[in-house]
Design brief:
This protein has about 260 residues and is α+β, with helices and mostly antiparallel strands. Helices cover about 25% and strands about 25% of the residues. Helix 1 (about 1-15) crosses helix 5.
């Protein structure tokens, strides 16, 4: 019994729970990386704001937004939004949105910066010095398995979320999760792909699945052997505590 107990403890201590443990032990490591930017897909919801010195132009390009008088007289453009009327632009199944004045505009597989630049070019045909802001409203992903079922809603101003940040948002991986077998499920243009990532290895940093995309599912497999070993340890501690307690009671009775 004691040997099994010792073996279980040793197994818990020696398990590799270090992220990227194969990185070189240097004070500073610099590498060039290519980040996969988040792109727009059918079903996404975009928030688009157009700010110009003209109140009439603002009302023309902004659905549900009214600009206060004053324009750029004080060096600022003040905007006033009425309730939740500016509910966003839904990307249809063709990958397009209907935008005021511009009409049907393809946005599929574009970044929010590319959409902003496209709208800027169009608005400049009507007014000088416009400001355009484009944000993705419904960037979310799902965490499953050892981290628990959690749907993570990403703030609209954060479009670059990597796997480590996603796990942190969901509470992180405990010692009961398999860090060397994290599954990322992704659907793009009708194709579902599944990638297994090893968080003990630095190679994960270069994976196209390291940066999360909208509606990704991340599954962290529980380590059944480790959970069973921990339960075994707890049972043995309880058993040992019971023996000590009984011995103390007997000692007090017969001393």
């Amino acid at each position: 019994m004691s040997l099994l107990f010792f073996a279980s403890c040793t197994s818990l201590r020696t398990r590799n729970i270090v992220y990227f443990s194969d990185l070189e032990q240097k004070p500073l490591i610099t590498e060039q990386v290519e980040m996969k930017r988040l792109t727009i897909k059918p079903g996404d919801l975009l928030t688009i704001e157009v700010l110009t010195p003209s109140v009439e132009t603002n009302m023309l390009f902004n659905r549900g937004v009214i600009m206060d008088e004053g324009g750029i007289g004080g060096g600022q453009m003040i905007r006033q939004q009425q309730g939740n009327q500016n509910e966003g632009y839904l990307v249809d199944t063709r990958g397009s949105i209907d935008f005021p004045v511009i009409g049907n505009m393809p946005v599929n597989n574009l970044t929010t910066e590319q959409v902003r630049d496209t709208i800027l070019l169009k608005v400049r045909e009507y007014v000088q010095d416009p400001i355009v802001k484009v944000r993705l409203q419904n960037f979310r992903f799902t965490m499953m398995g050892e981290t628990g079922p959690t749907v993570v809603e990403v703030p609209a101003d954060n479009e670059d979320v990597n796997l480590l940040e996603g796990l942190a948002m969901a509470g992180g991986i405990s010692i009961y999760g398999k860090m060397n077998n994290v599954l990322v499920i992704r659907e793009e243009e009708g194709v579902r792909t599944m990638a297994r990532l090893n968080l003990n290895s630095k190679e994960t940093l270069y994976s196209p699945y390291f940066y999360l995309q909208q509606n990704d599912i991340v599954y962290v497999e529980p380590d059944k052997a480790k959970v069973a070993g921990t339960s075994f340890i707890r049972r043995n501690w309880a058993f040992a505590a019971g023996i000590v307690s009984s011995a103390f009671v007997l000692y007090q009775l017969f001393k």
